[in-house]
Design a protein that fits this description.
Blueprint lengths: L2 E11 L3 H32 L5 H13 L11 H19 L16 E6 L3 E4 L2 E4 L8 E2 L12 E6 L5 E11 L8 E6 L5 E3 L12 E2 L4 H18 L5 H35 L2 E5 L12 H24 L2 E5 L25 E3 L5 E3 H18 L6 E3 L16
Parallel strand pairs: 8-11, 11-12
Antiparallel strand pairs: 1-5, 1-7, 2-6, 3-4, 6-7, 8-9, 9-10, 12-15, 13-14
The chain binds zinc ion.
Length: about 400
């Protein structure tokens, strides 16, 4: 059955000076409204034990706009301000449902600058997008086409720390399911390589089933370390420091962008070519207390990859199984099932008493696959949760980029 999904398409755009100014002021107002409403909610909750509703926050916004001090809120589109209140409402709903921590203030420096426009606040005509309070359409770089006859329902404008502008366009899309296949694959998170698959995949892995860390990253990381060192030497508050910070942000953005593209390709291939993909619970990574940059990037990638695998599997009618983090995937022989007492990280290949010679990671990937399939047979398998949605991986459809 074809699935109707809400999917976000993200593009870079180049604002005119007037647009940049309008958006900059809108970001500021969004942040102010969010923080002010949060402050009021906190006060009401602490002093009166009262939970302020979205409607009350919205009424308060109307009052603020009538005051002299906050009259400037009227100068920007009202929709992003209302959306900020809705986001705050959602943050509180998550908090009260114990899915996330208490909402925090948005800081000018640390928070992502964003403004969300719903249908009434933008015009979509002849493939041109014009936001409220603007005369000209946005100059968007259409790096890939929107689906034919797509009708955007929400448009989110952001500016990242590297100073780049993006617009994310949410559309409804019908995705036909893929024809069923028999192949299935286990995925192990590697130490020397990004990941290792239980069987090699043409064009994606080497003959050993390993997906190497992308080549370009080593050079990029060196550049990042250099830029960070340079930043540390600059005087607080100086113009040179601001410049150095931007440089760090640019290099970092480049690394994460290329990583994301790579993970999209990887997850799409894995989901297209396999009926079932078995992965390890990512919490296992937290046990490795290694704060290196490489590790941090690798951890973030793993979270991203898992979420991509899960939503793409839903789109295409595939299955993702998650094996419990305590499963001893590297200590088991995938040939005979014998379990070793210990398996130090330094051991890359080993020979079992049954005679089988294993690459550590390939063996682990095979075990992960076998464990996932075995637990699926067990209707009430304790160690495996088919497409479990934890609070960490749950994403609103709006956040799913393809
Ligand atoms: Zn064996």
């Amino acid at each position: 059955m074809a699935q109707i999904v809400r999917r976000a398409y993200k593009y870079r755009f180049y604002p005119t000076p007037e647009q940049a100014d309008e958006l900059g002021r809108t970001f500021g107002c969004v942040r102010l409204v969010y923080n002010k409403a949060l402050e009021e909610r906190t006060r009401a909750y602490i002093t009166e034990g009262h939970r302020i509703s979205y409607m009350e926050s919205s009424a308060a916004l109307t009052r603020w706009k009538r005051t002299k001090e906050l009259a400037f809120l009227n100068e920007v589109s009202s929709v992003p301000l209302q959306q900020a209140l809705r986001h705050l409402q959602a943050a509180f709903a998550h908090f009260f449902a114990k899915r996330s921590k208490y909402p925090t203030f948005k800081s000018r420096k640390k928070s992502r600058a964003a403004a969300e426009y719903t249908r009434s606040a933008f015009r979509w005509r002849d493939g041109q997008l014009t936001l409220a309070k603007m005369r000209d359409p946005l100059k968007i770089v259409w790096s890939r086409p929107l689906p034919l006859r797509a009708q955007p329902s929400t448009v989110t404008v952001t500016r990242d720390s590297a100073g780049r502008w993006f617009v994310s366009i949410l559309v409804e899309e019908t995705i036909p399911p893929l024809a069923a296949v028999k192949t299935q694959v286990g995925v192990d998170v590697g130490i020397t390589s990004l990941l290792t698959l239980s069987r090699p995949v043409n064009g994606l892995t080497g003959e050993d089933g390993k997906v190497p860390n992308p080549q370009y990253e080593r050079a990029d990381r060196r550049r990042l370390v250099k830029a960070q060192r340079n930043l540390a030497r600059k005087t607080e508050g100086s113009a040179n420091r601001a410049k150095a910070r931007l440089k760090v942000a640019r290099v970092y953005a480049r690394i994460t962008d290329r990583r994301r593209d790579f993970l999209h390709k990887l997850s799409t291939r894995l989901v297209r070519e396999n009926q079932t993909v078995v992965i390890e619970d990512l919490a296992v990574r937290n046990m490795v207390k290694n704060r290196s940059l490489a590790r941090a990037i690798s951890d973030a990638s793993w979270r991203k990859l898992r979420s991509m695998l899960e939503y793409k599997a839903r789109w295409y009618g595939r299955q993702v199984l998650v094996v419990d983090r305590w499963f001893p995937s590297s200590k088991l022989c995938s040939a005979c099932g014998a379990q070793r007492e210990s398996m130090p990280l330094t051991v890359r290949t080993w020979e079992c008493t049954c005679g089988a010679v294993h690459d550590r990671d390939v063996n682990a990937a095979k075990n992960i696959l076998a464990a996932g399939l075995a637990e699926r047979q067990n209707a009430c398998g304790a160690g495996v949760r088919p497409q479990r949605e934890s609070s960490r991986t749950r994403q609103p459809a709006a956040k799913q980029e393809a």
